């Protein structure tokens, strides 16, 4: 072209960004700026979109600095939404929240969706529900994108009450009630909240199903202990759904076999999945098989699969699964070997292998070995990772973390702990005293699980 104008440059930048040729979009944006053309909301929003797709926060910050030099752009709702989305997809939650706050009075549904998705994907997840409630109070009507993120947050938090409220809202909307993405999300949410029957009801009422629908229901059955039901649904999927199983389907199938104790059936599906369904076993499938064999007590077979059959290097998840099985079946010899393997591939700061091995020794009464493991942890500077849990009361999720001192009723909680320890000592005084090592270990476990 003998001449180019701002519109020409914007067309090229947005075209590349929309076709996921993001590096080229950013190169054209840089060239446009270098040649002295003014960057407006269209070129800058496209550039931010490219940074979002690349998760490139550094260039996103550079574009943000250009925007900051033009105050009117900061209040542009499209630019603001693009900034929130960019920081969200780059995992920078605080910056996303800051950009959202600066848009007070200039927000739209897309902006709200970006922040809700940010918290849902990056945490803290409960903030996604807080922002959703604020969105409703501010008079904005959520769309399918909003609701999908909120349902996913409910699934992560097991916030069943909120999830049911969202389901009620969707059921009243003719445009949304048959949305396949939302229906799939509800199946997954109910399963993760332990209400697999409700998820199955949603699944059966779906006007249209895709592979995600079948996978969500099969995995939902498997994770809730309905192994036979999961396999029956898998056979139904093969029979006439028109959908072919993928690697996620097979994870659900193998997991179902493990939970149902169907070792032979699991072996058969695993050995035939590539031949019958064209799905080559991945690391996750080997992990499922190790879990299946470990649950059934075939520990040596699981160890052989890891060391001799897997074409890829075992990671901490698969060794951790076998170590957990060693604990269940009280195989301390193999457990010690597996713990050493786990520590070779796991970061030295992870307390998991130490804690599992310590618990195995404790259950076998090997208190000297318990203390040696704990000494090793102190020597290596390893501390037990704090666990956390949450409970939903009257629609509000409360998060509790180990050794959290901020709870307003911490004195009552610790007083009750003292009572429990005293009763434990009294009980064992009547049935036979514990050794000092056993008492120290038991008391430490109680205090470690306190807030």
From TrEMBL:
Residue ranges of PPR repeats: 5-39, 108-142, 210-245, 350-384
Keyword list, A-Z: Repeat
Family annotation (NCBIfam families): PPR
Family annotation (PANTHER family): DYW DOMAIN-CONTAINING PROTEIN, PENTATRICOPEPTIDE REPEAT-CONTAINING PROTEIN
UniProt name for this protein: DYW domain-containing protein
Record organism: Brassica cretica
């Amino acid at each position: 072209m003998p001449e180019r104008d701002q519109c020409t440059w914007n067309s090229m930048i947005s075209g590349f960004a929309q076709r996921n040729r993001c590096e080229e979009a950013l190169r054209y944006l840089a060239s446009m700026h270098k040649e002295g053309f003014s960057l407006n909301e269209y070129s800058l929003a496209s550039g931010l979109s490219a940074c979002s797709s690349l998760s490139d926060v550094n260039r996103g910050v550079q574009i943000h600095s250009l925007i900051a030099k033009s105050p009117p752009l900061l209040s542009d709702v499209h630019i603001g939404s693009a900034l929130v989305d960019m920081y969200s997809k780059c995992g920078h939650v605080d910056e996303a929240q800051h950009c959202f706050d600066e848009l007070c009075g200039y927000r739209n549904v897309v902006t709200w969706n970006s922040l809700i998705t940010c918290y849902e994907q990056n945490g803290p997840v409960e903030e996604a529900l807080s922002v959703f409630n604020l969105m409703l109070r501010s008079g904005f009507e959520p769309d399918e994108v909003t609701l999908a993120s909120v349902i996913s947050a409910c699934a992560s938090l097991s916030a069943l009450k909120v999830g049911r409220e969202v389901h009620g809202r969707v059921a009243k909307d003719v445009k949304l009630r048959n949305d396949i993405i939302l229906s799939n999300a509800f199946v997954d949410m109910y399963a993760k909240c332990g209400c697999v029957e409700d998820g199955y009801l949603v699944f059966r009422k779906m006007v249209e199903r895709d592979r995600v629908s079948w996978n969500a229901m099969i995995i939902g059955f498997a994770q809730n202990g309905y192994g036979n039901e999961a396999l029956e649904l898998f056979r139904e999927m093969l029979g006439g759904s028109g959908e072919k199983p993928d690697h996620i389907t097979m994870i659900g199938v193998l997991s179902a076999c493990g939970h149902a104790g169907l070792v032979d059936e699991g072996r058969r599906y695993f050995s035939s999945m590539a031949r019958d369904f064209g799905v080559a076993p991945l690391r996750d499938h080997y992990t499922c098989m190790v879990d299946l064999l470990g649950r059934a007590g075939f520990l040596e077979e699981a160890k052989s699969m890891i060391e001799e059959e897997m074409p890829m290097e075992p990671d901490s998840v698969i060794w951790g699964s076998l170590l957990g099985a060693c604990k269940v079946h009280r195989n301390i010899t193999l457990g010690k070997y597996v713990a050493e393997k786990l520590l070779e591939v796991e970061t030295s700061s992870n307390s998991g292998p130490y804690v599992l091995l310590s618990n195995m020794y404790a259950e076998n009464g090997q208190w000297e070995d318990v203390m040696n493991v704990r000494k090793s942890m102190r020597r290596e500077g390893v501390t037990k990772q704090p666990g956390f849990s949450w409970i939903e009361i009257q629609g509000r999720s409360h998060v509790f973390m180990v050794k959290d001192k901020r709870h307003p009723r911490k004195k009552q909680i610790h007083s009750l702990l003292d009572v429990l320890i005293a009763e434990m000592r009294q009980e064992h005084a009547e049935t036979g005293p514990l050794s000092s090592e056993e008492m120290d270990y038991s008391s430490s476990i109680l205090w470690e699980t306190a807030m």
